[in-house]
Amino acid sequence: MPAHPHHNHHHRARTQDGIDWSSRLAFFRQVDELDAEARRVVARRLVRPLPDRPTVLDVGCGTGGMAVALVEALSARGGGTLVLVDGTPEMLDAATTAARSAAAYESDTTTASVRVRPVLADLSTERPVDLAGPAQLVWASNVVHHLPDQRAAVAGLVEAVSPGGWLALAEGGLDGKFLPWDLGVGEPGLSDRLSGARAHWFALMRENIEGAVRLPGGWNTVLADLAMLDITAFSYLVDHPAPPRQAVRDWAVNQLTWHRDVAGHLLHPSDRETVRRLLDPQDPAYLGLRDDVFLLTAGTVHLGRKP
After folding, report:
1. Measured between alpha carbons, how far is residue 85 from residues 7, 116, 149, 157 in Å?
2. What is the crossing angle of helices 89-109 and 25-47, to 10°?
3. Stretch 194-216: mean pLDDT
4. How far apart are CA 277 and CA 113, in angstroms?
5. Cα separation of 172 and 156, whole Å?
6. Is 211 helix (H, G, I), strand (E, B) or coil?
7. What pLDDT sits at residue 21?
């Protein structure tokens, strides 16, 4: 999952991480739907301590799943401004449309209004504070690990936080599970081998980003190095158990397709054949028709308050 969504260059261009994010639009919309309830809980928690009518910055907004949750949370406590930042035009357009329609719906049911402002920006070269800062809350989900210098990227996010405001960094958590241990085709344990292959791909992706800098230690130590206060973290669960509704099956097909496309070459040929069968609509093992797929993942949000 969340692996979840983010940035760079112009239309249809690949970002520095080599990923054509615009091609993943449909997948991220699926994630937005399946994660919606969990994100609502997270958004309410993050917005609760903010002052009246705050400015919130959603950096690497993807297709807008968290943006919608933030609009709802802001509306419930008097309104505010939500600034959406992404480097892929198609992603930013989708997020803006989703957030503005949520804002319009909310303003019909309450007197509180949320202003939504989109900003197209390349986070590897542009400073968030110049785009929209300072903000009382900066939210960045699965963005930083796609940028060359992760510590510098977090420093840039901290810079965009107003004094006393919060940075919420959604990074890490638990790798999403969606396949049973024994699928009845191929060797049991494919799920773990897929995770291993994807972890290997991720390491290679980081190595191949031009100007990539290693980030030793955990995100809490980065926030501490940047003089943030009240550093803490919490995790949230996304749990859609089997038997799945069709949206979960469709997500599983897309997730396995993504695994195959980025890390399939790292699998044993026999596992590649199993994956091929699972993705073949004509095969009895086809993932899109199975009753034993599911979605279980945990995301972690790291928090720090600016002095």
Report:
1. 9, 11, 19, 12
2. 50
3. 91
4. 50
5. 19
6. coil
7. 57
Residue 139: other Cβ atoms inside 10 A: 28
Q: What's 17's DSSP letter?
A: T
pLDDT confidence of residue 137: 98
The most confident of 13-17, 21-25, 90-94, by mean pLDDT: 90-94
Q: Which two tokens stand for residue 295?
A: 């979605």
Q: What are the start-end ranges of the H helices in 7-81?
A: 25-47, 65-76
SS3 65: helix
Torsion over CA: 75, 76, 78, 80 (sign):
negative
Pairing mode, strands 80-86 and 114-120: parallel
259-302 tens-digit pLDDT? 999 999 999 999 999 999 999 999 999 999 999 999 999 999 99
Tokens of 109: 């049911």
* Token pair for 298: 């945990």
Q: 262 φ, ψ to 5°?
A: -90, -30
Tokens of 38: 């969990």
CB 129 within 8 A of CB 135: no
Distance of alpha carbon 31 from alpha carbon 15, whole angstroms = 21
Q: At 64, give phi and psi (nearest 5°).
A: 100, 15
- Give the pLDDT confidence of 102-127 residue by residue, as tens digits: 998 877 666 679 999 999 998 878 88
Q: Are β-strands 55-59 and 295-305 bridged in parallel, bridged antiparallel, or unpaired? A: unpaired
- Predicted pLDDT of residue 23: 67
Distance CA 66, CA 204 (A): 28
CA proximity to 6, closest of 116, 122, 119: 122
CA–chain centroid gap for 275, Å, is 25
Strands 55-59, 135-141: parallel, antiparallel or unpaired by DSSP?
Answer: parallel
Structure tokens at 228: 């943030």
Confidence (pTM) = 0.89
